[in-house]
Automatic annotation (TrEMBL):
This is Anticodon-binding domain-containing protein. Signal peptide: none annotated. It comes from Syncephalastrum racemosum (Filamentous fungus). Residues 282-379 form the Anticodon-binding domain. One of its GO terms (molecular function) is proline-tRNA ligase activity.
C-alpha cells in the first residue's frame, strides 16, 4: 500500500493539498493506459467530508458505479444521487410488507418504508443513545443504508468520538425518527427530507439531468479529507492558538493495482503490460542460442540500451537454452511491451526486428537499424 498523509493549517489549504494529490493520482492512472473513473464515495469510518475512489473499469469488478452519460459525474452506488420524475416515483405498487409497514408508521401513500435500529456508542463502547429510524422511499425502490447512516449521524450531531451502529429491523420503538426521500411529494410529517433511496441506472444525473449508466469497476485507490477528526483526538496542534491540523489521507493499493491492470490488459496470449509498470520494457531474444556471435551482439545491444537514462534496468535478455518459438511465446505471455529479435539480418544489414505487443491483435513488427534502436524505443515507450 502506498500511503500519504497531509497536515495543513486551514481547510482551504487542506483542500488544495487534496486536489494536488488527486491530480497526481489521475496522472498515474492515465500513464497506465487503462479506462478509469474517479467516483464520489462514502468516507465510512474514516470520517471527513470529502472522499473519492479511483476505479479501473472492468466487468469483473466488485464495485458498482453510476456514471453520467453527458458530464463527468460518477459515484459509487452506495453514495450516488440521481433524480427521479414524479411519474416514475408513482408507477410501482407497494408490496404487502410495504403496506403493513406504512400502516404501522401511520403513512398514507405508495411507499417502501425501511426500519433501522440505531445505537450511539462513546469512545469506550458504551451505549449513550438508541432508537429507531424509518427511511421512507418510493414504492419499488430500496432504502440506501449508507445514506441513512450519513444523514442520521448529522441529525444526531455526533462528535468525533462517537460511533453510530445502524441495523435493519422489523420492529419499531416509540418515537420513531422519520426520514422521507425527496422524491416523495410533500404532505407527510417527517423529521428530515433528503436522498435516502438507492440510485439506479436510468435515473437522471443530479448535476446535468442526463441519464445515469451503471458500470462495474475495481477500486485501486482512495483519497479522504479528514478535517480535524484525528488531529483533535490525538492532540496534533500547531501555533500559539493551538489549532488542530487539517488532515488528508491518501492511498493506492499497489498489488491490487497490478492485479487490476492484468485483469483489463490481457488477451489469449497473456498479459499486455503498459510500459510504465512492465517488469521490463524490452526483452531481447537471439534467434540462435548456439553461435557465440549471436550472444555477443545481443549483449552489445543490451549494454548500449541499458546505458541510456530512460532504459536503464528496463531490459532483459532471454538467453535460456531452448527453441526460439517458445521464447517468443513466453515473451507474449509475460507481456513485455517490446521484444527485440536479433536474427541474421543484424549481421548482414545491421537491423533487428522490434515486436510491439498489442492487446487482442498480432504484434506490430518494425525493422529498426541497430544504430537508432535507443531513439526508436525512447519515442515508443
Amino acid at each position: 500500500m502506498k500511503d500519504l498523509y497531509t497536515f495543513d493549517a486551514t481547510a482551504d489549504d487542506a483542500f488544495a493539498s487534496y486536489d494536488s494529490v488527486s491530480g497526481a493520482y489521475r496522472r498515474i492512472f492515465e500513464r497506465l493506459g487503462v479506462r478509469f473513473v474517479v467516483a464520489e464515495a462514502d468516507s465510512g469510518n474514516m470520517g471527513g467530508s470529502r472522499s473519492h475512489e479511483y476505479h479501473i473499469l472492468s466487468s469483473a469488478g466488485e464495485d458498482t458505479l453510476l456514471t453520467c452519460s453527458k458530464c463527468d459525474y460518477a459515484a459509487n452506488q452506495e453514495l450516488a444521487v440521481g433524480t427521479i420524475s414524479p411519474d416514475a416515483a408513482n408507477t410501482a405498487l407497494p408490496t404487502e410488507q410495504d403496506q403493513k409497514m406504512s400502516q404501522m408508521l401511520n403513512l398514507s401513500g405508495a411507499f417502501s418504508p425501511s426500519l433501522f435500529s440505531f445505537v450511539v456508542r462513546d469512545v469506550n463502547g458504551e451505549a449513550t443513545r438508541q432508537g429507531t429510524v424509518a427511511a421512507v422511499v418510493p414504492a419499488g425502490r430500496s432504502a440506501n443504508m449508507t445514506k441513512v447512516t450519513s444523514e442520521l449521524s448529522k441529525y444526531l450531531d455526533l462528535d468525533a468520538q462517537e460511533v453510530l451502529d445502524l441495523r435493519a429491523t422489523r420492529t419499531a420503538q416509540d418515537n420513531v425518527t422519520l426520514f422521507c426521500d425527496e422524491a416523495i411529494p410533500q404532505g407527510q410529517q417527517v423529521h428530515l427530507r433528503g436522498s435516502f433511496r438507492d440510485t439506479v441506472e436510468g435515473d437522471g444525473c443530479h448535476a446535468c439531468g442526463a441519464e445515469l449508466k451503471q458500470v462495474r469497476a475495481i477500486e485501486a485507490a482512495h483519497t479522504f479529507y479528514l478535517g480535524t477528526k484525528y488531529s483533535d483526538a490525538l492532540g496534533c496542534r500547531y501555533g500559539p492558538e493551538r489549532k488542530a491540523a487539517e488532515m488528508g489521507c491518501y492511498g493506492i493499493g499497489i498489488s491490487r493495482l497490478l492485479a487490476a491492470v492484468a485483469e483489463v490488459r490481457h488477451d489469449q496470449k497473456g498479459i499486455v503490460w503498459p510500459a510504465s509498470i512492465a517488469p521490463y520494457r524490452v526483452c531481447i531474444i537471439p534467434t540462435n542460442d548456439k553461435q557465440a556471435e549471436f550472444a555477443s551482439l545481443t549483449h552489445t545491444i543490451y549494454d548500449t540500451l541499458n546505458g541510456t537514462n530512460s532504459m536503464t534496468d528496463e531490459i532483459i535478455i532471454d538467453d535460456r537454452k531452448g527453441g526460439f518459438g517458445r521464447k517468443m511465446k513466453d515473451a507474449e505471455l509475460i507481456g513485455y511491451p517490446f521484444t527485440i529479435v536479433v536474427g541474421q539480418k543484424a549481421f548482414t544489414e545491421g537491423v533487428v526486428e522490434v515486436h510491439a505487443r498489442k492487446q487482442g491483435a498480432n504484434s506490430s513488427i518494425f525493422s529498426v537499424p541497430i544504430s537508432t534502436l535507443d531513439t526508436f524505443l525512447q519515442k515508443s515507450c
